[in-house]
Model the fold of this input.
Amino acid sequence: MRVAILGCGYVGLELGRQLRDDHDVVGVRRSADGLAAIEEAGFEAVRADVTDPAELERVPDADWVVFAASSGGRGAEAAREVYVEGQRTALEALAGREDPPERYVYTSSTGVYGDHGGDWVDEDTPLDPTTEKTRVLAEAERVARETTREHGIPGQVARFAGLYGPARYRLERYLEGPVTAGYLNMVHRDDAAGAVRFVLEDGVDEEVLVVVDDEPVEKHAFADWLADACGVERPPKRTKQERLTAGDLSAAAERRILTSKRCSNDRLRSLGYEFAYPTFREGYRAAVEAYRAEHGDADAGDAGGR
Done:
């Protein structure tokens, strides 16, 4: 199969690496650095902006299309430009070809759920985004599902929990603190990519899948585990109220802090996906070992196993 990964960044590059031996993979980016990263990952790179129909003509016909573009961590308007308008533009351009895609996957975020007071959420939980940006993400999901339906293309949404992995372990945030209370819902980059690969290769027909590991964890508990694994003192902690009374947060940041939920991967598990990193303990092992080796710990080889 030919696979086109639009916005081939952090997860897209890993997805391409996982698919390249068995499929013809094309990664699409608009920057020179992005193209170089794709080539280094070992598959074809195409320069195109997903928001520009003329540039999308450079993207070859593909059997499977994955929209994994990023807005670069910017605000709601930038997110709308990429996830809503850019995705609609890309879908219309590719679906209108003589040889349209057979499958389409849009990578979304569990941020669309909003606040559930620490309760569990899954694919059947109604969406209630609490910030302008997460409302844009929910709208982008509707674009993905409705536009593919209009064109008769099976379309799916993969809702990623918080991504971590190489270059995104952020050890200092949790080792130094202070750490604000709340739940962490996480998935290792390799499993985020692996779940999309699984959906494509195994012909999974679920319209929405939550992609998260087995164990949501309270931030204070995670910070203490990480400190113990790294062999350092446990970091200072603070409650949500203590963080809010500091008075230096935007309204959107305050809403994010007040948002609490635990995301379930029961459906993905029931379909047969096997996680490479089922919990943060396995996922952070390499980072912990590297940290202890860098700081002169002779027992670094045993780190992360607690």
Notes: Residues 7 and 68 are 5 Å apart (CA to CA). The two ends are 42 Å apart (CA to CA). Residues 300-306 have pLDDT under 50 and may be disordered. The chain has 13 helices and 15 strands.
